[in-house]
Design brief:
434 Repressor (Amino-terminal Domain), two-stranded antiparallel sheet
Length: 113
């Protein structure tokens, strides 16, 4: 914490420590896992949106291709409700024939669809 005039300034690390505990505690680890998961979902949503826009499709048109309403496509593009089966349906509808997940190390890559 740093005092600047009458204000107290805290680093992000200090705020996280206060609310979730220090790094290595179960609460902080869970928070970090949830944040990482949300970031990954956001990037997947952005990839869906980019692929859709490159094909000049509206959210409604993409939804029709996979049998959902426009609102569901909006949620996916925002990184909500993303599951592997849903990703498979969306990307197949967009013409992405295959996808793999790189697990790294000796585990290598796993085909998702």
């Amino acid at each position: 914490m740093e005092q600047v005039g009458e204000f107290k300034l805290y680093t992000m690390e200090e705020v996280l420590d206060e609310h979730f505990g220090p790094i290595g505690t179960p609460e902080r680890d869970e928070h970090e896992r949830r944040v990482a998961e949300a970031v990954h979902a956001y990037f997947i949503g952005e990839a869906i949106k980019k692929a859709r826009l490159e094909q000049n499709l509206t959210q409604e048109e993409l939804g029709e291709r996979i049998g959902v309403k426009r609102a569901q496509i909006s949620k996916l593009e925002k990184g909500h409700c993303i599951t592997i089966p849903t990703m498979s349906r969306v990307f197949k509808a967009l013409g992405v024939a295959t996808a793999s997940l790189d697990l790294g190390g000796s585990l290598g890559k796993v085909a998702l669809w």
